[in-house]
## 1
Amino acid sequence: MNEMTTITTTLKDWETDQEVRWCPGCGDYAILKAVQRTLPQLGADPAKTVFVSGIGCSSRFPYYVESYGFHTIHGRAPAFATGMKLANPELDIWLVTGDGDGLSIGGNHLLHALRRNVNMQIMLFNNEIYGLTKGQYSPTSRLGTSSPSTPGGSVDRPVQPCAFALGVGARFVARGFDVSKNLPDVLKAAHAHKGAAFVEIFQNCIVYNKDVFHDFAAPKGAEDQQLWLQHGEPMLFANGTKGLARDVQNMTLKVVDVVDGDWEAAGVKRHDVTNRALAHMLVELPFGPFPMALGVIYDDPRPTYEDAVLDQDVKSREGKVADLGKLLSKGQTWTVSGTAADPV
Amino acid sequence: MATISAEKRPASISGQSPSPEAVVVRFAGDSGDGMQLTGGQFTLSTALAGNDLATFPDFPAEIRAPQGTLFGVSAFQINFGSSEVTTAGDAPDVLVAMNPAALKVNVQSLKPGGLIIADTGEFTKRNLDKAKYDTNPLEDDSLAKWDVLAFDISAMTLESVKEFGLGNKEALRCKNMWTLGLALWMFDRRRAPIHEWLKAKFAKKNPVLADANIAALDAGHAYGETAELSGPLRKLHVESFVQEPGVYRTVTGAEAVSLGLVAGAKLAGVDMFFGGYPITPASAILHNLVKMKEFGVTTFQAEDEIAAICAAIGASYAGKLGVTSSSGPGIALKGEAMGLAVMTELPLVIVNSQRGGPSTGLPTKTEQSDLYQAIYGRNGDAPLPVIAARSPSDAFECAIEACRIATQFMTPVMLLTDGYIGNAAEPWKVPDPEAFEPFPVKHLDAPNGADGKVEPFRRDERGVRPWIKPGTPGLMHRIGGIEKAIDTGNIDYSPAVHQSQTDARREKVENVANAIPDQDVSLGDKSGGLVVVGWGSTYGPIHQAVRRARRKGLAVSHVHVRHVWPLPKNLGELLRGYDCVLVPEMNSGQFKTVLRDQYLVDARPLNKVSGQPFAIAEIERAIEAFFDDVPGNEGGDVDPNKKQLPSVKAVNP
């Protein structure tokens, strides 16, 4: 995010006159609404806001937000955003990508944008499938995913987006899902983080990978399957009857029962967004034996890339005058006097 | 930053050989011997002596190839003279060979009767074996057709730096300065500028090394005085070249491009963003620009070639002038992003320092084989202007021209140089920055459409859309790579819209032809028997070959094209004024095909793809073939040329 003067807008102000072209029932609609609902709450200025995307269903996003927008090429959105931010650090950049765009063709750029810590919000819509190319398995598809390109089931193991982000040095990692009412809060936290803020958003592809997140995202039984993390609060789920405690022997976390709300007695740990080791454990928790960890998993800012680059630029310009004539005649010169001869 | 005036010397100094018009010297040694440094300093001293000059650094792709090997030989050739010099020269008059491998790779290029200076200290059994010599060439009669001056430079260097207490290895590193000292004596050059340079170079690191190198330089110079008494070594004086009055410096193509980009951005009134990724031979531009931050330059070393151009486009979108630079393989990677810049109509300058290809090809050698890639190398109908620099100093103006067209026409522009132009140095009359016409950019600051709406793709009479910076209130809009509606830029890929926008993009680039100068004739008449048409770094050898042919009375002219896309409006008519068209290129005939396609002229190719520039003689022969009345004798390929090239047989016996 940026230090900025807040602007009063409504959700309507962030809608464009363009017809939204996602499939009916696509999770992208819910994410779009969540974003358009969040932006007025942030006091964001449409003139300073830029949505940048790559290629894929999710990457059509900028056309539907009434701000500046750049729909670029497959996988490269982080590179475009980096150039924009270095050219004008005042811009508030939201990057929209998907599991194919961000982790397959664009994995390298995502790595470097996170590692460099370019100040922007990166929303990775994870639907575990290639939608716009009609249903091939993606780098986040689960083992055995049957698709037009893997009729016998995929055999390669998926990448975990949040584990990837942490692994390459991200300083903010959060998780949400399309229809969650908590998504605006997650986005607000991402925006409040100065630096590259990575948000994985589970998104339901109604056509090619329907209900793949149903196990935890379905409203029914959600309280047992979702662990919403809050900094400083105990890591509780199932209406406070279960929690995460330290498994010291195995150096990981374990699920414990909480009796009569006495989470301390059960050994449940408080969430600490600055604890990198805890973040690593949370993103690696296998769903099933554990609930899905959602919300802000890690948030520990460091100086941003553009600040470091531009500070260095300012320092190297100090005391120097931009005299082009001097620059051109730098080094050893000699003077020729007399008349010119016809060189041919 | 000393300013030194070239002294006008008396026409001849008694006791010296008569002044030759031009001399070609090649310094060759192991890649660790510092030959490029030696050549660079010799170039500077030559320029200070008032000669016109051209250089050709020729080094291996390996940073430290195994010592003494044939493929580890690094050479630096300089041609200097008292008249205009436009090439690095065909065959050297003097070859300095620091070891057997350097001798073997280069000796066949030497003119008969030329002088070989060799360091006997390096002609050991071990080094002779590495160079695949059965017997010592300095001792058998295999070098009979040349003058040989062989002596133990290594030992003399060690002797000259003894007092500084350096280790053997460090002391031997001063060999190149000893040799340079000898060369300075031979050509009557001043030592003081080199002394100054050495002092500055080692001032912080190790002043003792400065003293040692100066001692070696002076010892080499002093040796010249004594050796002259006996043996083939003689002092040659080359008259200074009468140049246009002004302040001069030497400049390489990479320096000129960097300076031109800075000047271009300034003339446009915008800051520059440079995104690059290390690649030979383009990296020098990034290294130069990093040192010019006070001119509003921001540089970014990206994670790859694609990210470098994408970041530059992102910066252009944000209102700066985005620039990226690479060589052939990197340019190929950037292709898709160039298409996006074409589609979104954003200004961008792409510098392509061409090298031998395909694939990794010949990283440190020169070629012009990316012309098709520059003009046509993108998916879809994606035209963009292409400019080609003819020489290191010409690259300055070409870079300004690229900035002008990119910002005035909201288009990516490719600037072609090559490994030869990038690395080679020549004297450059320092231009007056005030002499260039500014072309200030105006970013849109108020709605341009009906009802106070912004229309990002509303074109002006030249077909150019406005440049709109994010951050500007009230002008929010979306752009992207999908086909877009007229004026509004909203997604629209209906048949009529795609037809119309494809036409509009093409016409806009064609319109650039209205904003560039007409094609001139570099040398000769505007009609006649033959025109030799070139582009890029072939300028020097074509110019000299045409000059020589004209002296023989042949009706030949030289046309050199800077704007290779779109072509100057009058070029077709101009070419049709000649009976024949010959196109020498360091590729397999790419510009020849473009000319045939555009004008239906019978352009004949003359092709060379050995990684070496054309020799003047090669083009001269091809010109003469048009006038020898032998049908079907025109054009063709250049044989690997022993005089010009490090002999292929020497490298691969």
Note: The first strand of chain B starts at residue 3 and ends at 5.
## 2
Amino acid sequence: MSTQHLPEHPDFLWRNPEPKSSYDAVIVGGGGHGLATAYFLAKNHGMTNIAVLEKGWLAGGNMARNTTIIRSNYLWDESAAIYEHALKLWEILPEELEYDFLFSQRGVMNLAHTLGDVRESIRRVGANKLNGVDAEWLDPQQVKELCPILNIRDNIRYPVMGATYQPRAGIAKHDHVAWAFARKCDEMGVDIIQNCEVTGFLKDGDRVVGVKTNRGTINTEKVGLCAAGHSSVLAEMAGFQLPIQSHPLQALVSELHEPVHPTVVMSNHVHVYVSQAHKGELVMGAGVDSYNGYGQRGSFHVIEQQMAAAVELFPIFARAHVLRTWGGIVDTTLDASPIVGLTPVENMFVNCGWGTGGFKGTPAAGMTFAHTIATGTPHRLNKPFSLERFETGALIDEHGAAAVAH
Amino acid sequence: MLLIPCPNCGPRDETEFHYGGQAHVPYPENPNELTDTEWSRYLFYRENPKGIFAERWVHSTGCRQWFNMLRDTVSYDIQAVYPMGTRRPDLAADPAVEAGTASTAADSTTTGTAAPSLSATSLAASPTRTAPEGATK
């Protein structure tokens, strides 16, 4: 909490090279997933003649806008496998990247407010345990013991009837995570090119052979798309479609407070998720706006609803002031699971659809997507998340565990 | 919050409406003849443009009527409102729409099957891409 000091901001962690005329692989999108992919391409597959293209500045999209929650308590086997792998990577990455990005395993609670919630939660705890994911069911009194500021009385519209709890879950400093990956990428020779917007793709028949950018054309053998909310735009440039809808998702922070909130509390039902950042801000996330949007801002009533839920659950928040609110663009799929794998364009690969919860998946997305790019084949963990599942019907419906709260 | 011009009730807050996603997605005429790929297109694939999007809204706490709307997904500017079952207005080709003059005559792009009171109405006040009054900044 606030007694811990943030790392000093170093001078420069990566070069800002001019784009070369060709690379072995180009990653489009310099957010967490793009950087993690480049890192694992270089580290696990020896591909160092690669570039990460970022149209803005590094990690300035959803990587800078998320609420940094990391957990793996998903219902289905496929999701538990990839998210739990991500969590295991989170546990070793600070050492591996030689960068303390304050990964804090303070636990995550998912509250239940209805009998339906209770049943879903207990079922999910059972499923988690079978998949080797740490999970517990807490009664309201145990919830109160873990997070004393939570109101568990029955004087609210949706009283707390219990919670699932994953002790190994937590939060991390998102900016530092991106910088940690970027520094290691740079050390291994990866070119991180900011202010480089992709404007089109060069194709030879059905095969991608290059990337057109506002800083010139770059020839490449392989392209990996890691553009989150803008994935549909890139796919259209490349000549295929994705079953993605882009929505604004908002979050906010309060001014700084003394440590009052020791864990992470999420509530799907009344729809808010809250933690307290190391510096002391209360960090709260809302739900997506219903309409499609690329505007990186949403509607006020969504924030209002989220605050109402927060104040009901945490009465002491009533006197906290909002410091700032913001929005990001999330790439949602209809089964609330990501799309990672091959595309109809040869040598072009896509990692998208992580929707409202991509931050927690960053290391596993990068590790498995790097495998897919390097070998041209799915990784064991990302295979179920192929684009084909929308044709075969093998959907991974995580709306219960994933859709609303991250 | 968006200020949405309901064709029946006038401008109302977004909270009175529900969103219906992409407009102009007809149910396949012969679903049994579709391949898995075609069926997946119908079920799961929707357009997701960065720019003008034709979408459906319903005024759930007002007249409870559905209508279509053209909205810019970047500026959130509402460009036109038009009845269900009519074709998408061509903003570039229809000078009345582009100039921002509310069209009260039967629109050339409608099929004629819609109620006359629901002809396409342009809301583009100016060619600039500023958000309309009431839209979230």
Note: The mean pLDDT of chain A is 95.
